[in-house]
Each structure stands twice: as structure tokens, then as C-alpha cells.
Design a protein that fits this description.
By secondary structure, the chain is mainly β. The chain is built from no helices and 18 strands.
């Protein structure tokens, strides 16, 4: 349960308060267990706000969210599903770095560039949904996502950067858009199951 208290929110059963200031969620209690429901007044998830919340299982992001900072959810070992709303215009580097049990990632946001290391070492990632409008898949974006079987690269993508899918050992099928301009070095290195 989440109880609103002034400018801060209190996570029931957690040892501390989430720090929300002027529409930005700066930090969440590290020992919080379960689903975090972010209040609709929040527009920005700060850098490292949920970093190493190891018992967090899911996050509900409101349509008010505009930005997700670097390392925002890194190290959330039990986080399984996340949906990035269409309102988001920017996601920082390594936002989901080392979320080992993250299984489903739905990005409804119209991002132009997927940041580097965004999902590195998300070992359990099996489903990724990307939207048209994406132009660049950043360096090492999906490094080590060894459970990812396939990915649809939107027709708008022009560049797949260095090592974007390195170590995605179960990736078996990739469809490139007709307008692709660059597939950088090591982009698919270690994709041993890639057949087509």
C-alpha cells in the first residue's frame, strides 16, 4: 500500500520514505518488497532512484512520467515486468542494467535513441516491444540478454551500435529494416543460435 504524506510517500512495511521533490522521484526505500505504484504527480524518475531495490517485483508508471534517469532500476534483481508509457521522452543509460529476472519490457515511448547498456545483463528478458520512431539502438543496449529469442527492429531504425546484442546467445531471428545504415562492430557477437 502507498500512503501519500505531503510531498513524500510512505511505502507501507518499508523502513524509509520515498523521496519526491517537485515532481521528481529521487529515491525509493531499498528494502521495499512488492509492487511500487508511482503517484501521478511524478514526472521524472531520478538517476538511481530504484537502484538495488532487490525485493521490488513490479513498478506501475503513470502516464505523467516524462523521463527515466540513468541506472534508475539497475540491480532490481526481482523486477519481472515493466511498461514504459508513451509520455516518456528520454531514458538514461543503464536504466535496467542487471535486472536479472526482467522478463517483459514494453516501451510505448516514442524514443529516438535507445540508450547504451539499457538492458545489459537482463538474463531473463524474453520479450521486448519497441515502437516506430526509434532511430538508434545504443551500444551494448541488450548485452548478455541470453534468454531473448527474437526481436523486431522497428522500420525507423537506422543504426545498431557497437555490441548492441552481444552475448544474446539464444537470439535466433532478427529482421532488419530496409533503411538500415549501420550495424556496428560486435553488434551480434556471441549470438550462437542466430540462424536467420
Amino acid at each position: 500500500a502507498i500512503v501519500l504524506v505531503g510531498c513524500n510517500i510512505v511505502a507501507a512495511g518499508a523502513s524509509g520514505d520515498a523521496d519526491i521533490q517537485v515532481g521528481a522521484l529521487l529515491s525509493w526505500p531499498k528494502d521495499y518488497k512488492g509492487v511500487a505504484v508511482i503517484p501521478s504527480k511524478v514526472r521524472h524518475i531520478g538517476s538511481g532512484a530504484f537502484s538495488n531495490c532487490r525485493k521490488l517485483t513490479a513498478v506501475v508508471l503513470p502516464e505523467s512520467i516524462e523521463t527515466v534517469g540513468s541506472f534508475a532500476f539497475s540491480g532490481c534483481e526481482r523486477l519481472r515486468d515493466i511498461r514504459i508509457p508513451a509520455s516518456v521522452t528520454n531514458i538514461g543509460r543503464s536504466a535496467f542494467f542487471n535486472c536479472q529476472t526482467l522478463t517483459n519490457l514494453v516501451i510505448l515511448a516514442k524514443l529516438v535513441k535507445m540508450p547504451g547498456n539499457m538492458c545489459s545483463y537482463c538474463y531473463g528478458l524474453r520479450h521486448v516491444e519497441l515502437q516506430d520512431g526509434l532511430v538508434e539502438v545504443g551500444d551494448m543496449a541488450f548485452r548478455g540478454c541470453r534468454s531473448l529469442p527474437t526481436i523486431r527492429i522497428p522500420s525507423s531504425v537506422k543504426r545498431i551500435c557497437r555490441g548492441a546484442f552481444v552475448g544474446c546467445s539464444r537470439l535466433s531471428h532478427v529482421v532488419f529494416p530496409r533503411g538500415i545504415e549501420l550495424v556496428d562492430e560486435f553488434a551480434f557477437y556471441g549470438c550462437f543460435d542466430l540462424k536467420r
